[in-house]
Structure formats: C-alpha cells, structure tokens
Design goal:
Largest sheet: 8 strands, mixed
Strand content: 15-25%
Number of helices: 11
Shape: globular
Length: 270
C-alpha cells in the first residue's frame, strides 16, 4: 500500500476547498473503508477544527510545524477513527517560510521538504489529502511537490474560474521549474445555487476551458447542512445528513474513477 497523494486547491479563498478536503477524507475512510491521512497545511487550521469537532477531540498535542522542525511527521499524526488520521495545523505554522529559508539554502530543498517527510508514512495509507491556503506560497509549493494529483475546486463565479485557471498555470510552473510530477484529477464545481444561471454559465465556461471530461459531473451544491456541520461537527442524525454525505460519496467515487483512467493510460478529456 503506497498512498496516492491529492492536494485540494484554488487560488481564491472561500470556495469550499477545505470542506471538500475534509469531506473527501471523511467519506474515503468511513464510507469506503480506505486508510486516509488528511494533512492541514493552512495556519488558519479550519480543517483541523472541523475534524476535531467531529471526532470529539479537545486537545492537539503536536502539530505539523513541530513535525517540520523535528524532521519527522510521525509524532504529529493524530488518530481520528479506525481509518482516518490527521496531521493538524496550528497558528504557529505561519512561521513555515522563515523556517524553510533558515534551514535550506536551495529552492528545491525548500519546496520538497514535505515530500521528503511524507515518504516514511506513505505505506500506511491508501490516500493522503492535503488542504492548503489559497495562495502561491511555500505551503502550496510543498503540497504540489508532495502530491500525485491536484483536485481543483471551482466555485461558480468568475473570480473562482480565474483562480482555477491561475492554478493550472502555477501547476505548469512547478513542473517546468522543479520537475514536479503531478496531474489534474479534475475540476470540481462547488456551492452552486439551484437553477442559478450565472452558476451554470460559469460551469459551461469551465468545460470549454478545461475540457468536458475534466469537469466533474457531480457538483457540491449549496447545502445548509454543510454550514451546520461547521458548528456541530459532521453528524449522521437524519436524512439531511445522509443527503450531504451522499453528495461527497458521489464526488469521491467520480474522483477515483478519473484517477483510475489516468493511471490506466487514458487521459481524462480524450
């Protein structure tokens, strides 16, 4: 078992990126019985907060920044449930750029540090998902260099579409500059309003820009229950919960199908 590593990103904030990273990890572990590691690479630690709230975890004993400082991420791995682990973030992770510049003189060493630290952990998991801030930064660079795939989040509005386009350009830069080996698992539209003309027009533009098969057929539509989970944690109390879970199960299944096509030699979009 060597984990497939997936970074979830867009260069526009507030597009649902963290929620997708958390829920994809949750459904892979709970609904699909896969061994999953979620890495919170955002100093705001929203993914950490939601996972901890959902699992009833009240204390974060070690964070990703301590793992970076000590050169070993294993002590920072926090057990969430039978199949899901988390490497949490705290606000101290804002010091990552200064740490990397002081530790390494070469750019390649700076951007490849996460990749190096993840190698001893990969055999423990089927999937590793990485949540990153919506910026071109040392956080995103390290995530890109460590990942096999990127799942691009597209909120159905113009600025998010531009952010997704910039993300593709950034991906190409990392490939050209550092020989990153990463492929696009797909473009996932999120937070659509039912019947919203602007929303669907944006998705159609995304299909023209990225190719029909690269844009997910399953959308993450605007669900009130997702906002409630920010307060209560992820629950299984009623049919509204079940409906929200099914949305992400469908998304994850489609993502795995796209990855299977890529690894089978069929380029998504052809």
């Amino acid at each position: 078992m060597t984990a497939k590593t997936i970074v979830v990103g867009n260069f526009k904030g507030g597009v649902g990126k963290t929620k997708v990273a958390v829920m994809a990890s949750w459904e892979l572990s709970k609904a699909m019985n896969k061994k999953v590691l979620l890495i919170d690479m955002d100093p705001q630690a929203n993914a950490t907060t939601l996972i901890a709230r959902s699992a009833g975890i009240s204390e974060i004993k070690s964070s990703i920044f301590e793992g970076f400082e000590n050169g070993d991420l294993a002590p920072s791995v926090m057990h969430v449930n039978d199949n899901l682990d988390l490497i949490p973030a705290t606000v101290s992770f804002k010091n990552l750029p200064k740490f990397l510049y002081s530790k390494f003189s070469e750019d390649l060493d700076q951007v490849s540090y996460l990749s190096r630290l993840l190698e001893p952990l990969k055999d423990n998991y089927d999937y590793i998902l990485i949540d990153v801030p919506p910026t071109i930064s040392d956080y995103s660079d390290n995530a890109m260099m460590a990942a096999d795939y990127v799942l691009i989040i597209l909120q159905a509005q113009e600025l998010s579409l531009e952010g997704a386009e910039t993300y593709i350009s950034y991906l190409q830069f990392m490939i050209d500059e550092y020989e990153a080996y990463i492929q696009v698992a797909g473009v996932l539209p999120v937070l659509l309003r039912p019947g919203g003309r602007v929303d669907h027009a944006t998705v159609e533009r995304a299909k023209e820009m990225f190719g029909d098969d690269n844009v997910f057929e399953n959308y993450v539509k605007h669900l009130e229950r997702l906002k409630a989970w920010d307060i209560t944690g992820i629950t299984y109390n009623d049919h509204h919960d079940n409906r929200a879970h099914q949305v992400f199960i469908d998304v994850v299944q489609e993502m795995l199908g796209k990855i299977e096509k890529i690894e089978g030699g069929v380029t998504v979009g052809e």
